[in-house]
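Collaborator request, handled under Task 6.
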Amino acid sequence: MKRTGPLLVLVLVLVVAGAVVGHLLGRSAGSGASGVRQVSAIIGSEKARFFADPEVRQVLARHGWSVRADTAGSRQMPTRTAGYDFAFPSSRAAADEVRQHSRPAGDDVVVFSSPLAVATFVPIVDLLQNAHLAARDAGGVWRLDLKALAEANRRNLKWTDVQGNTAHRVAQNVLVATTRPQDSNSAAMYAVLLNRATGGDLAAVAKLFTDQGAVDTTSEEPFESYLRSGRDYAPMVLVYEAQFVDHAVNDGLAGGQTLVYPTPTLMCEHTIVPLTQAGVELAKLLATDHDLQRLAAKHGFRTADATLTAPVFGKVRPGDAPLPDSIDGAVPDPDYQTQHTLLTKLEEKMS
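Structure tokens returned to the collaborator:
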């Protein structure tokens, strides 16, 4: 009996100590041993290389952050935001859709932008010019006429029909390979451009998608196939300009790879929807920190400060054409409701 008191005291001390340790561990679970705060994000696949860049990670760590980024098609994000601190789709319209389906912790933040472009090859551009589908502008930049492309597809123009074609003798329709508009922002924005170019002819727009057959769901997949398989995959692939510039700067161009810009084109504003207070803070950091914006330019994105972009873009000359200094006359990024209505009607046409 005399030993019971000390034993109870010891048990109580151990219980209290365990509770204190558990509390401290719980407080540090989101911070890591170094005090770095860990956050998770769902992002467009075209931004994966930016977040994986060791320099980006170092800058974030210097500010006390670590980001785990999972990729998804921008239009798949609205139903996948649970457990994330922020969503980072590839346009304002896609961000609006995320906001409609979640409980944001703060205002949307535009971090950087990138226009739609078409990754192709020098011999293919020559064929497009022969078919009166592409031409150089006054600055020497190649432009793809989307209205003419839709009209050519309406009459089922094939590569073998193009006059003087000895470079790509394939009996397939002249098309730009894309992702699915229902899943991916790039294809959804392309649908917006095609709708504008054709004067609202949704049958013509739908045909430019359905003639492709099965397609990928994220913008990085077709671009990787373009890099890996070249024209054996597709002679023209819809991309964000940033993807091509990132590859050109950090990996180098090969095999006659070049870039053309659709006319009209559209500037996609890559926008963060913060879902927690940590997401609010990180969105502000990504948009305002000079080093992070410089690194975004290194990965091909156009930043608000053009002096960060110019040195990067000046190094890139795809084929024998320059990159445009600015994107003039771009179609405004549509609002969520306008895009949603268009895509719903398009999906009906494609089914």
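The cover message to the collaborator said: "DSSP finds 14 helices and nine strands in the chain. The two ends are 83 Å apart (CA to CA). Please let us know whether this matches your experimental observations."
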